[in-house]
Amino acid sequence: MVQIENGRTRILDSAAAVLCKRGLAGAKLSDIARMAGMLAPSIYHHFPSKDHLVEEVMMEGIYRNSRHIVTKVEVLGAEAPPLVRLRAAIQAHINFLLTGDNYSSAVARVFDDLPSEMKGRVLAAYSSFDNYWRDLIVAAQAAGGVNRSLDATVVRKFLIAMLDSSPSWYRPGKLGPAQIAEQAADFVLYGFVGREA
Amino acid sequence: MVQIENGRTRILDSAAAVLCKRGLAGAKLSDIARMAGMLAPSIYHHFPSKDHLVEEVMMEGIYRNSRHIVTKVEVLGAEAPPLVRLRAAIQAHINFLLTGDNYSSAVARVFDDLPSEMKGRVLAAYSSFDNYWRDLIVAAQAAGGVNRSLDATVVRKFLIAMLDSSPSWYRPGKLGPAQIAEQAADFVLYGFVGREA
DNA sequence: GTCTATAATCAGATAGAC
DNA sequence: GTCTATCTGATTATAGAC
User: Fold this and answer.
1) Which segments of B99-143 does DSSP mark as H helices, in order?
2) Considering the domain boundaries, does residue B118 fall inside one?
3) Domain at B80, CATH number
């Protein structure tokens, strides 16, 4: 039996979609409501304010993205080579963003614009995800076979910024999400020059 | 004789600073005016609207960034190996962003949020800069010694997103702009694995 | 749970004095 | 060229009917 999504969920879905399309300031409650099949004041029956709604989208986006990536990595097992696990994480991240998870794309799009108090809470929720990436990178460095002169934090920041940019420029075309994901992994691991110099 | 900057220039400088700190919607005319030592309505003596002011910051940012990078690359000469030229461009871009050019950082920060008509004009102005990067990448691919399976457009998008993210997370610390710039170049060219695998 | 008003707020923009 | 005072418009949010 198909469970029809309730009003609250429809609002969250709409908010995620509008946030990643228009940004934080551009996401008007009237747009979110219309996409959810209602009018703006109805939102207040489900959420106390726009900020609360946005924050819930952020938290959900972090949770979904994190769960997706961890699942794809951990299926490989802890004994899998660190670079194989890192590659899986990169591909999972791109695939998730480009295959239409509006929640995770919304986080990538509006995080920088969040009001500072909310940003603090969202960042705290983000930290375990961030640590997961850090661990993947540090494990690879510890295992050897990588460029140890690169700073793990710098690598992580560059890597995530790069991956998170993909929804802003990706358009369905000759390269699909899976191909972009593979290119991302090759680029991150071996660079523009590649394995055979 | 020192030329004191005039009101118009002070406003542009303030706007660039506030835009990269607060984003487009967060950049209030009253904040911009205050930093320029005046009150909000005074801005209208110099600019017809906030949009016109923002657009001028964007155009100036693109011009400055582009001029800086082209200068640093062309000093090497057209005969310099393409990878050397690409490395110089990467380092110049990071150095320029992190050494405090608010105009170029403002472009990186607010471009996605610009109203669509303005975005079109800014994108047109950006295209010659974008083409310059594309040419650097394509020249390197044509010269050989790089991973040809990577799509030039995908590489360019990832590369610029990565570099443009740096102002959002960089804080003066153990690694300075020059070190980050070098790490960026190594990472882009040889990847996380690096030259000696 | 959604609607029709309507209030409250805030930021961009204008008028006109100085 | 900058100010004070004010207007306008857009958007969040509330009140209360259905």
Assistant:
1) 102-110, 116-143
2) yes
3) 1.10.357.10
